[in-house]
Design brief:
Layout (H helix, E strand, L loop, with lengths): L3 H17 L15 H6 L1 H7 L3 E13 L2 E8 L2 E8 H4 L1 H10 L5 E10 L5 E12 L15 H6 L1 H7 L1 H23 L3 E2 L5 E2 L11 E4 L4 E5 L5 H10 L3 E9 L11 E10 L3 H20 L3 E4 L2 E4 L5 E4 H9 L8 H10 L11 H13 L6 E4 L1 E2 L15 E2 L1 E6 L2 E2 L2 E4 L4 H16 L10 H8 L5 E7 L1 H6 L20
Parallel strand pairs: 3-5, 6-10, 14-15
Antiparallel strand pairs: 1-2, 1-4, 2-3, 4-5, 7-9, 8-9, 10-11, 11-21, 12-13, 15-18, 16-17, 18-19, 18-20, 20-21
Helix pairs in contact: 7-8, 8-10, 11-13, 12-13, 14-15
Length: about 500
């Protein structure tokens, strides 16, 4: 069995012979007249008219039969059989193809279509040329490969051979398109806000740092989808905005979290968190039907029916019922004791009451099937949300809960500049005490609020929603997930 190095050497020799024959090995243009899909859909008409067609694609199989050869040509998901015959091409051209073209090569072929005696739709090749010579052979046994890391590193091969991986790419595109269409139909305006920020805002997260050479300025990659910027647009007089884009959080990796991912956030003036809950419920159902064609899913071992009435889960009651801690009456010592008892790992650096309460909730949520909304969330973990008027310790905030996890975050946005300034100060104190996920004081945002922002509901969700609906890890659902480089990549 020849090694990859030997196979590569052999194919480069073929490449040189192709060039010696006067062919361009990597031409920029083709004379394609039809896609393979168009050819197959219009096959009967093309056959009756004996019309010449020019097709392009990648060679996926070659079968020699004496003076004739059958080739499978694939373009995207469509495939057609080609028939090379020595009498039709002349012996020299026929043998040149057999000797110098391989599985994996991209080619252009010209000819007329016909059906074989077995009824297979086929193109009889009259002319051919190379479009791109493959100097590495395609793997013979890629499909079903169990080495996940290898699949991620060579995702282009995974997508080529694994229909499920390809379908993820297609469905994910439909996922974001469905969200965009849903919001635009309701008069939300798509906007684009800065990715580089002097102060990262809009979330509790550790940012990535970078440096702007021209300005000699340290900056951060955004940790939210322009939350503070979009709220400044509410100040400016826009009523409905949204953004879909990339955001970055320098945190841990697990099946639900990545550091570089897609997010959507919308902001809706003159609407409350209750209005947001109704809209998000409709949004999730719209995505499910538009992208997946159903409302019932099996996710992480749960049976989730989005069509049924969505429940409301009271934050305080859930934690009290499941582990016996009253999050509005507890202190840091009790939380640490309970975390140790439940064997919940946590970062002791800068650990505080807010992080402790959040850790307990994350433990308790794992058994909630959903669909529903988490409500009455403590204000200590909600630095950008309005307080409830009947209980200032709780926020006007909601989170969709499905299959044991939060799949978004929304609230009535805090628009009191004095309250916001005070909360930013507390967040800054937490940062100075070692909590790297606490938010930084953003003076420019407080000043913008000081000019007046209308009552506003905001909501954000990431591609984690897609990964849950398709019941894969979020990494599996990224086209090219981040990997540590290897010398042979």
């Amino acid at each position: 069995m020849p090694t990859e190095k030997e196979l590569r050497k052999n194919r480069i020799e073929k490449l040189e012979r192709i060039r010696e024959k006067g062919m361009k090995a990597y031409p920029a243009e083709t004379k394609k007249t039809h896609s393979i899909k168009e050819c197959l859909n219009n096959f009967k008409n093309l056959e009756e008219k004996e019309e010449e067609v020019v097709l392009v694609g990648r060679i996926r199989a070659i079968r020699e039969h004496g003076g004739s050869t059958f080739v499978d040509l694939k373009e995207e998901t469509d495939q057609i059989q080609l028939f090379f015959q020595e009498d039709e091409l002349e012996e020299e051209d026929y043998n040149f193809f057999i000797d110098n073209f391989d599985i994996g090569d991209f080619i252009e072929v010209k000819g007329k279509v016909f059906k074989t005696n077995r009824g297979e739709e086929t193109l009889g090749v009259e002319e051919y040329k190379i479009l791109s010579k493959s100097i590495l052979p395609l793997p013979e046994k890629w499909h079903g490969l169990q080495d996940t890391e290898e699949r991620y590193r060579k995702r282009y091969l995974d997508i080529m051979f694994n229909e499920e991986a390809r379908e993820i790419v297609v469905k994910k595109s439909k996922f974001w398109k469905s969200i965009r269409g849903f919001l635009e139909e309701r008069d939300f305006l798509e906007v684009h806000t800065p990715v580089l920020e002097t102060t990262p805002g809009g979330a509790d997260a550790r940012p990535f740092k970078t440096h702007h050479n021209a300005l000699d300025l340290d900056l951060y990659l955004r940790i939210s989808m322009g939350e503070l910027w979009q709220k400044k647009l509410m100040v400016a007089g826009f009523n409905k905005t949204f953004e879909i884009g990339r955001q970055f959080r320098n945190e841990g990796i697990d099946p639900e979290h990545l550091q570089d991912y897609m997010q959507m956030e919308f902001y809706w003036a003159y609407a409350s968190y209750k209005d947001g809950m109704e809209l998000v419920k409709k949004l999730f159902r719209h995505i499910a039907k538009e992208v997946f064609g159903k409302l019932e899913f099996e996710i992480r071992g749960f049976n989730v029916d989005l069509s049924k009435e969505w429940e409301e889960y009271d934050y305080r009651s859930v934690v009290l019922d499941k582990i016996g801690v009253d999050i509005l009456e507890t202190d840091l010592d009790e939380i640490k004791e309970k975390l140790d008892e439940l064997d919940i790992k946590y970062d002791k650096k800068g650990f505080n009451l807010a992080r402790g309460v959040d850790s307990l909730w994350k433990y308790c949520r794992k058994s909630i099937e959903g669909p529903g909304f988490l409500v009455n969330i403590p204000i200590i973990v909600s630095p950008l949300a309005k307080r409830r008027e009947d209980n200032p310790e709780l926020a006007q905030r909601f989170q969709p809960i499905i299959a044991g996890s939060e799949l978004g975050n929304g609230y009535s946005e805090l628009n009191d500049p004095l309250d916001q300034a005070e909360r930013f100060k507390k967040q800054q104190e937490m940062r100075e005490a070692g909590d790297e996920e606490a938010q930084q004081y953003d003076e420019s945002f407080v000043k913008a609020l000081s000019y007046g922002m209308p009552p506003t509901c905001g909501f954000g969700m990431s591609e984690r929603v897609f990964s849950f609906f398709i019941d894969k890890s979020v990494k599996e659902c990224q086209i090219f997930p981040l990997m540590k480089p290897k010398n042979n990549d």
